[in-house]
Amino acid sequence: MKNLGYYNGKVDRIENITIPMNDRVCWFGDGVYDAGPCHKQHIFALKEHIDRFYRNAKALNMEMPMDKEAFASLLNDLVKKLDDEDLFVYYQVTRGTAERNHTYSPGKGNLWVMIKPQAINDGKKPVSLITCEDTRFFHCNIKTLNLIPSVMAAQKAKDAGCHEAVFYRPGGRVTECSHSNVHILRDGVLYTAPTDCLILPGIARHHLLLACERLGIPYREEPFSLEELASADEILVTSSSNLCLRANHLDGKAVGEKDFLHYEQLREAVLNEFYEETERQ
Q1: pTM value?
Q2: Residue 169: which domain range?
């Protein structure tokens, strides 16, 4: 065999392996992986790689489908099926298979393995490099599939019996929720985080601001703090599936519910726009 794919017990050529569309990795990038080289059927530093693999899965509350010893035995058996003596062994576990939802239910993960011919670089030839600013954690404005932080926060909210989790940055700046935008009403003014790289500018957020313009409610796109969130007259949450909600509890404490008039005006305006557009013949 020239290459090998494995998915939950099925073994075949990589190109013949199929994955359920509802594997959570497809929706959220919800998984962890590890990998390493193999020479003459010996996987280098296997114990260290497997320890890290299982440690990372545990950090995300993922249930492994087998113990470490069984998994090591599986990998050692799989590399023997290939013809080449220099291989690259890659493996990952995803949270499971379920209908798309940020929160999840307990259950064993899906195990993937990919093995292909690949020799390590002997390091004799120098390489060229470039520099690149590290912005890996500053792309909240891009709606990517890499949603593990949002998944973990949404699950934390669910476990606490709450609708959403509000994100904040060091220093207390509120940004957004795990899968919504968050806003506040204070003294008749709507405040919403600016559309920089720290938030995803939601479509529902945009329509909330359009509603403000139609109603003559002033709004400001500027940062606000956790303290300002907690003391706001109203806390609003918007998303494509929940166009305009209000919150009355934050971290177990009563909040908001001091400006029902403006909230209700905004809620009705956004909902009316939705029904007018969707019911138009």
Answers
A1: 0.86
A2: 162-278
Residue 145 in domain: no
Q: What is the 3-state secondary structure (H, E, C) of the chain?
A: CCCEEEECCEEECHHHCCCCCCEHHHHHCCEEEEEEEEECCEECCHHHHHHHHHHHHHHCCCECCCCHHHHHHHHHHHHCCCCCCEEEEEEEEECCECCCCCCCCCCECEEEEEEEECCCCCCCCCCCCCCCCCCCCCCCCCCCCCCHHHHHHHHHHHHCCCCCCEEECCCCEEEEECCCEEEEEECCEEEECCCCCCCCCCHHHHHHHHHHHHHCCCEEECCEEHHHHHCCCEEEEECCCCCCEEECEECCEECCCCCHHHHHHHHHHHHHHHHHHHCCC
- In a shared domain, residues 110 and 19: yes
Same domain, 106 and 182: no
CATH code: domain of residue 255: 3.20.10.10
Is 58 annotated as catalytic?
no
Q: Report pLDDT digits (tens) over 83-97.
A: 999 999 999 999 999
Number of domains within the chain: 2
Residue 32 contacts residue 92 (beta carbons within 8 Å)? yes
Task: Check residue 251 and give its pLDDT.
Answer: 93
**Active-site option among 143, 156, 158, 258:** 143
Are 167 and 103 found together in one domain? no
CB-CB contact of 172 with 227 (8 Å): yes
Domain assignment present for 14: yes
188 domain-assigned: yes
Same domain, 266 and 182: yes
pLDDT of residue 28: 93
Statement to judge: residues 110 and 172 lie in one domain: no
Q: Nearest to residue 96, comparing CAs of 41, 50, 28?
A: 28
